[in-house]
Amino acid sequence: MEASRDLEQLLRDMTPVVAAPAYVFCSFADRRLPAGVDAVCLFNEAEGLTAILDQADADRLGIAYDFTARMITLTVHSDLAAVGFLAVISTKLAQARIACNVVSAFYHDHLFVPAERVDDAMTILRALSAPSGAADA
């Protein structure tokens, strides 16, 4: 699978897919992830360890969290050096007043949007990836 930097191709082929669980953002000041927790993403910040967890796991373990989101994976293999791809997407989502927290992993970009706005976000992404939508970006 070869990564792409071509903006038009990335938009056309992004194929957004919503993951089943809801995810939550948690912070651990002691930088320790509790036993039994499988994070989808970890990031060390000055204030502590940020973890993105399955909401069901956080609830089961009594872990405090903020921002309940759904994860949309853009299944196109975007190059980490691609320019403008996420800017176009975040601009379109911002125009609809949809918050978006992005994690760019090695193969794909993952958008964490408010759970209650996931359908709206998917509508925007599908329109953006349609032939006329990608040309308008």
How would you characterize the overall build of this protein?
This protein has 137 residues and is α+β, with helices and mostly antiparallel strands. It has a single domain (7-136), classed as VC0802-like, CATH 3.30.2130.10. The protein is 31% helix and 32% strand. The protein has helices at residues 7-12, 55-61, 85-95, 118-129, 131-136; strands at 16-28, 41-45, 48-54, 66-74, 101-104, 109-114. Strands 2-3-1-4-6-5 form a six-stranded antiparallel β-sheet. Strand 5 and strand 6 (109-114) form a beta hairpin. The longest helix is centred in the C-terminal third of the chain and has 12 residues, at 118-129. The chain is globular and about 45 Å long. The two termini are 25 Å apart. 22% of the residues are buried. Pfam families: ACT_3 (PF10000). Residues 5-70 form the DUF2241 domain.
Features:
6-stranded antiparallel beta sheet, VC0802-like, 6 strands, alpha+beta
- Please tell me the overall pLDDT: 92
Please write the CATH class name: Alpha Beta
Order of helices and strands: HEEEHEHEEHH
Largest sheet: 6 strands, antiparallel
Pfam families: ACT_3
Protein name: DUF2241 domain-containing protein
Domain DUF2241: 5-70
InterPro entries: ACT-like_dom_sf, DUF2241
